[in-house]
Amino acid sequence: MRSSTLFERMSLQLGQLTDIELLRLHSTVLDELRARGAVRTRNNPIADYAEALVCKALSLRRAEKESKGHDAAGPDGTRYEIKSRRENPDRKATLSSPIRDLEGEHFDQLIIVLFAEDYTVKKAVELPRSAVDQIGRFVKHVNGWVIPLRENVWCNPHARDITLLLQSCQE
Hints:
The protein is α+β, with helices and mostly antiparallel strands. The protein has helices spanning 2-14, 19-36, 46-58, 129-135, 151-154, 163-170, and strands at 61-62, 72-73, 79-86, 109-115, 121-128, 137-139, 144-146, 160-161. The chain folds into two domains: 2-36; 46-170, PvuII Endonuclease, Chain A (3-Layer(aba) Sandwich).
């Protein structure tokens, strides 16, 4: 009974937290669960959060789950693919998740968001679809294009820096 009451009190308090505060709490909880051996990975909700944040910041409409190859659309019909990565001290992964069927032309713009470990936006850019061929590479074993998250992404001449725009939506 006691833990049920504690959970109810915590639930009421959680409702008062912002999205970013809840995500930071999630990160802390995962760390503790991992230290206890209850979980083996740091899987996180970063992809969904990135999509929601980008849609809010750019006034986009999220695509239906069954939409192939894009995550959002603008009022003018522009299709956006959104890729994100959260920094992780245990893994130095610097690649985007794969973009499948790039040849299918399923999106017009690519948005890449790099989150710090505490879920704050560190860097974010919008790139035209044509830039993916220049900055990405096809990886056969994942059957998709991946993008190394290096300076050629953040400083690409075709990139539009949207970092501040996304950061302002986190506050």
